[in-house]
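Appendix B. Extra example for self-study. Work through it before the problem class; the solution is given directly after the inputs so you can check yourself.
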Amino acid sequence: MSNIVIRIEKLEKRYQLGEVEVRALRGVDLKIEEGSYVAIMGPSGSGKSTMLNILGCLDRPSSGSYYLGGEDVSKMPDDQLSEIRGKRLGFIFQSYNLIHQLTVVENIHVPLFYQGRDIIDCYDQCKKLAELVGLGNRLDHRPKQLSGGQQQRVAIARALVNDPLMILADEPTGNLDSQTGTEVLDLMDQLNAAGKTIVLVTHGEEVAERAHRVLHMKDGVIDREITQRRRQVAPKPGIAAVATARA
Amino acid sequence: MVAFRAIRTVQLGIKSLLLHKMRSMLTMLGIIFGVCSVIAMLAIGEGASYEAQETIKKLGSQNIIIRAVKPPEDNKPSTGRRSYVIDYGISYQDAGRMQTTIPGVKRVLPMRIMRENVLFDQFSVPCQVIGTHPIYPEIAGADILRGRFLSQTDEERQNNVCVLTLGLAERLFAYQEPLEQSVKIGADYYQVVGLIREKSTEQRRPQSGNMEGQPLDNNVYIPLSTARSRFGEVLVRRGAGSYEAEKVELHQLTVQMENTSFVESAVPQIGTLLGRFHSKKDYELIVPLQLLRQAEQTKRIFNIVLGSIAAISLLVGGIGIMNIMLATVTERTREIGIRRALGAKKKDITTQFLVETVVLSFGGGAIGVVIGLLIPVIVSQLTDMKTIITPLSVILSFGISGAVGIVFGLYPASRAADLDPIEALRHE
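Solution. Structure tokens for the complete assembly:
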């Protein structure tokens, strides 16, 4: 029996857009087990971005409940949500979102900084992660000196540094060419094979193909769900070590 | 833990500022100018007022100086005569009345000043011959270098003795020992009994006539009684085709009070006393204490003006910083979103931008202090102006520059913290 990482019940999100009330989410129920690889798809306006924001604790639902690793985060105040984001979640964005003025290692360290851990104490950990994603020789480079694929791999390393319950990826290959995109997706496959829970938002069918579960959203609800066969990926030893560090 | 966070935040701030070196430098400029101008101007002002106060103090703060002033020219007899006698100045009686009627008067020092040439050997030096009393060095604060000053006996016997200032002695006696020599002043010979050095050589300006090119410390002191009997009361000056004679008893009275607390009350009393016996205003009162107070008052006003200039320039600098920080926050909205997503709380963002602003303003303050300390040094090197750097001005201006950073950084920082992380992440 695997652990439930996410449990969402009757989740609703309403916005006030001027006079009009927009119902972005209209009662979503969802459970995600540890170690699963979930893709969320849907046309624009279907509520998938809102879903991602709420899953990422960047936004709070209007009603319904959201349990992340057993904690109800749906009504937490802002500071606590920040803490949850820093400790429990890893983010991968379409546009990498690295911080320009910091080096590769420093970028990887950022989530730990906000948990009150100095870079001197966790330099080795950050360095190991950089090596894991194949940037061991770029430790002191700035994001601008790296290619898109390399930047995204730094972002992946950063998403792993706090050993999160779940990695949230928002179109991780959107800005990459197919070659580097495949590399990044392969890396994510490896992470999942090593036991990491991944939730991915995408438009691309070939990206979603890699997931075990594909959730199609439409008009603020999960319209249909497809379960796919798990791809057989043997995790690299290094990645397995990272993923099982928590156990 | 707090310590390392503070250090890292400062490091991050510096890193972020170094990303735009030019912009950061220009932003700091306002604070730099503000701080360095405060320190430099205060140093120069302090030096100037110190000099002024020193000069005044030399006159003696418990003294009141009454000086004879030639009445305005339009009082000349309009008869077309080209030679006449002007009768003005302070009388011997004035001195006596002062001593006896004004409470708190300790001593009154009369002075009679004549322009004569002093001769020795083939040297002839134009100088001021001052007839005065033996108490002169104590009241005017002159140092006796050699020999003695005039004595009471000299005064009583109308001795032909004189005391020279060091400067004059050096001009008259190239090779000889000046003491015991006889110099010729006017028609008579006087024996040199001592050499003195004036504390303030500017104190006695010439009463009239042209003293250009002549040092002011060419003074000869003779007993007042001798001066009266040898030179008489009428001083004649030859002009172009005319004689101009002045009848002056005394040119200057220095009234020494028991202590400074008597000065204030004595001034109007002296004014009244003199007003009663002088039909025209042929004297002026110089009150060093009042001058000192005035100098202090002037300094206070100067400080207020300076303070306002400093406040305005720091304010302008602060506004400049705030402006740039607001632009920075907008420009780095994305970074703020990223940091928020990665676990930064609102207060972490506030701290980050506040620290950045403070680093900027403190950096500017530090550079300003360095330049501000250099300017007075350069100024006193290039000119003769004295400059005094007060530690207070350094601490104050540096402190204010930091405060400016905090005050003008709070708004941009809170703007940054209040950004919605979702919006911020989407920002291009």
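Self-check: The two ends of chain A are 16 Å apart (CA to CA). If your reasoning did not lead you there, revisit section 3.
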